[in-house]
Amino acid sequence: MLRKHALRPQTVCEVGCGSGAVLVEVARHVDAERLEGYDISSDAARFWAADESGRLGFHEGDFLASDGTFDLLLCLDVFEHVDDYLGFLRRIRSRAEHKIFHIPLDMSAQAVMRGTPILANRERWGHLHYFTTETALATLVDTGYEIVDWFHTASGIERGTTVVEKVARLPRKLVGALSTTIAARLLGGYSLLVLAK
Would you call 58 exposed, middle or buried from its count of C-beta atoms within 10 A (0-12, 13-18, 19+)? Predict the structure, then answer.
């Protein structure tokens, strides 16, 4: 997304950075002066790598309790875990010029028909809110964001580890080759990557 839109942020922040692996990877490809990661989980801190360059910093705590603004804010697989996700999205909006969201699309026709995938994602990943492509984009617009670009990612298909996920991989890929929007709506397994202002 950064390459596609020729974005060269000098300051980057990832909210809910977890192990920090994404931010470390971003640092390898983006010539930013400062990259910061925030996570409320004390377990995440043990994975944070030392940074000799001094560009990368991690913070255990609530990003909303901090101050400062950034050129780019990353919010990857985060707001589906937040009780008041609408309030959260409104509060982070002013903290960066550009934002990149990665949003799991847990709602699909097969997930609703079977019922268990939604509850499994709640139990396995801690998802409290469930989205389709349309409701995810509408949520961002409703909370004041301007959508610049979006596309589907096959993260759920690629990371599938259970027997059911492995069996579902082929039909998801086949339908996705025709239309990722239809594949996400019918079969699931896709997420949404969104660039917003």
Answer: buried
**Per-residue pLDDT, 123:** 83
42 neighbors 20 (Cβ within 8 angstroms)? no
- Supply the DSSP string of 115-131, one letter for each residue: -HHHHHHHHHH------
Separation between Cα atoms, residue 70 and residue 73, nearest integer Å: 7
Q: Are 104 and 194 in contact (CB under 8 A)?
A: no
User: Of the candidates 156, 66, 50, 54, which has an alpha carbon nearest to the alpha carbon of residue 102?
Assistant: 156
Q: Crossing angle, helix 85-92 and helix 133-142, to 10 degrees?
A: 60
Helices (H), 64-189: 85-92, 109-114, 116-125, 133-142, 155-158, 163-178, 180-186
- Which residues pair with residue 13 across a beta bridge? 36, 73
* pLDDT tens, position by position, 38-86: 999 888 888 887 776 789 999 999 999 999 999 999 999 999 999 999 9
Sheet holding 11-15, edge to edge: 56-60, 34-39, 11-15, 70-76, 96-104, 191-196, 147-153
Residue 46's pLDDT is what? Answer: 86
